[in-house]
Protein: Zinc finger HIT domain-containing protein 3
Amino acid sequence: MAVDCAVCPLDDDDSIADFLNSDEEEDRVSLQNLKNLEDSATLRTLLLNPHLRQLMVSLDQGDNKAKLMRACMQEPLFVEFADCCLRIVEPSQSEDS
Structure:
């Protein structure tokens, strides 16, 4: 789901928390886990890769997100990125698998 930040500005922790506490709670990531993404050295290192960055830009700007996501998930680098994010935001689930 894309969010137009001009319509829904998220410029402070309270407004971010309000957004995260809105509908579809089970599909949301806690504010603390989002901050954990920011603090991850592994994730930062992955994001230095220009190929990964281009994949993400293409996905963000593309019209058919589902098709593009399927294509990105065939790229080992993107899968590594996705797995890294999931290990950070859902540590108990990734440890169980």
Remarks:
- Residues 76-89 form the longest helix (14 residues).
- The helical segments are 13-20, 31-39, 41-47, 50-61, 65-72, 76-89, 91-96.
- Residues 1-28 form one domain.
